[in-house]
Design goal:
The chain is an alpha/beta fold and 366 residues long. The protein has 3 domains: 2-143, Rossmann fold, CATH 3.40.50; 154-203; 212-365, no CATH class. The protein has helices spanning 12-17, 26-39, 45-61, 78-95, 117-121, 140-152, 154-179, 183-202, 205-222, 225-252, 261-294, 303-322, 328-365; strands at 2-8, 23-24, 66-72, 103-108, 126-131. The protein has a 5-stranded mixed β-sheet, with helices on both faces.
Length: 366
């Protein structure tokens, strides 16, 4: 048996005519369609029911086993309406006194009502879907529903509407800027905002910023030293940048100063390296503290601050040598000291870790 199933997802039939649903049978469906047409001649669900009746008559005239029914949802939304339709489909299937396998032909008036198809398919096989649209309004409801869905989605709404809104604001803002003799500034600022927005959307910077904020919030409530260490390190990096620029300006005022790239780089490194080293030591100590509190500290992690100090020592000596502040012997001594510091820390903590692992293994064996 083929069940011609007319779907009214938002229950226009029940709300406007008072008919109780589901409506089962050809005569009952025709009475419901007439009542809805009288109550609201412009309602598209009228065409859905009449289309279902038309298909029923055509198949019945060919002596095929067929039945027609009207099922409705409600106004509360897609999930609630889909559940209501599913319950009414169950009622219709239970009322069919036939030993034949039942399949359904679903009649709708647009894409919105077709969202219920998975609910119907879970209860009865679907042979086909027929969408009924008034010829003068071809694709109008589908277009309306698509636009409605786009505007209801926060992600899509932000992606489409914000750039369009900024573009529409350019002209009135330029007019305002012209009043104050600043049209170029207003146009440039607006264009920059639009460009920054598109870049941030393209690189997913918003998601990354949200993720960083969430990590910071978790670190704050978890009492992690890493958060404080990062804040202090950021301040030290800023101070290091300022110190490097000051050192460059100071060396450029000397008579022997040159403007080539090695000199500029060496001056910046010489002025900033101690601050950068302090930032590196601070972050590594914060990370070590958190690992120790969490019980996941390994001996090799303790190498980090010593590596930072060794690298800082080497860079300081090299930059000072390029600025003619130290001799070759001092440079060689600093390079050797930095290398030995890194090797000594690596060996020391590797030995400590191996002995700790051996002790743990013996303790487990006993």
């Amino acid at each position: 048996m083929l069940l011609v199933l007319c779907v009214d997802l938002d229950d226009d039939l029940g709300r406007k005519t008072g008919f109780s649903t589901p409506v089962i049978g050809r005569e009952e469906a025709e009475a419901a369609a007439v009542a809805l047409a009288v109550a609201d001649p412009e309602d598209s669900d009228v065409n859905v029911i009449f289309q279902g009746i038309h298909i029923y008559d055509d198949l019945d005239s060919r002596d095929e086993s067929v039945e027609v029914a009207v099922v409705t949802g409600n106004e509360e939304g897609d999930v609630s309406a889909n559940r209501e339709v599913g319950d009414e489909v169950d009622t219709v299937l239970a009322s069919l006194s036939t030993g034949e396998d039942v399949t359904a032909l679903v009649i709708t008036d647009g894409a919105q009502d077709e969202s219920v198809l998975p609910v119907i398919r879970a209860r009865v096989p679907i042979d086909g879907v027929r969408r009924v649209v008034v010829r003068q309004a071809q694709n109008l409801e589908s277009m309306y529903y698509t636009i409605k869905q786009v505007l209801a989605d926060p992600e899509t709404r932000g992606t489409l509407l914000i750039p369009i809104g900024i573009l529409l604001l350019i002209y009135p803002l330029v007019l305002v800027g012209a009043v104050f003799n600043l049209p170029g500034l207003v146009l440039g600022t607006t264009s920059a905002l639009l460009g920054l927005y598109l870049i941030s959307r393209g690189l997913a910077l918003g998601d990354r910023i949200d993720e960083m904020a969430e990590r910071a919030r978790r670190s704050l409530y978890a009492g992690k030293m890493t958060l404080i260490a990062y804040v202090v390190a950021a301040a030290l990096l800023v101070l290091g940048g300022v110190s490097g620029i000051n050192a460059l300006e100071q060396f450029q005022t000397t008579e022997t100063a040159t403007a080539d790239a090695p000199f500029v780089l060496a001056a910046l490194v010489y002025g900033a390296i101690q601050w950068f080293a302090a930032a590196g030591v601070t972050t590594s100590l914060g990370q070590i503290t958190d690992e120790y509190i969490a019980g996941t500290l390994e001996w090799r992690y303790l190498n980090a601050p010593f590596y930072v100090i060794a690298i800082a020592l080497v860079l300081h000596a090299v930059s000072a040598f390029f600025l003619d502040l130290v001799t070759v012997s001092y440079l060689a001594t600093a390079l050797t000291a930095g290398t030995l510091l890194g090797i000594a820390s690596t060996l020391a903590f590797a030995i400590a870790e191996s002995r700790s692992s051996a002790s743990s293994a013996r303790a487990e064996g006993t």
